[in-house]
Structure formats: structure tokens, C-alpha cells
Amino acid sequence: MTFFQTLNSVFNYLAEGFYRIFSPHDDAYPATGIQPYAGTPYSKRTDDW
Question: What predicted TM-score, i.e. pTM, was given to this entire model?
Fold first, then answer.
């Protein structure tokens, strides 16, 4: 009986790992997209290269 409990716990451990790897992400980051530029452009132009 102890063998089957150990085997079951090992299987559960591996199954949880596979589930975490292959499941959709659950990150709650906000969607940022393109941010508008609100600054002033630099007045002098340098063509050194």
C-alpha cells in the first residue's frame, strides 16, 4: 500500500509540473500597447555617422 501512495504522489508531482508548463499564463499584467510621445523633440540635429 505504501508503494502505491508513493507512486501516486510522484505522479501528482509530475502532473502538476506539466500542468504549470503547458497551461495558459495567468499573469495579470495590464495591456500597455504603444505609448504616445509627449515630450519636445531635440532642436539640434547631429549627423556624425
Answer: 0.49
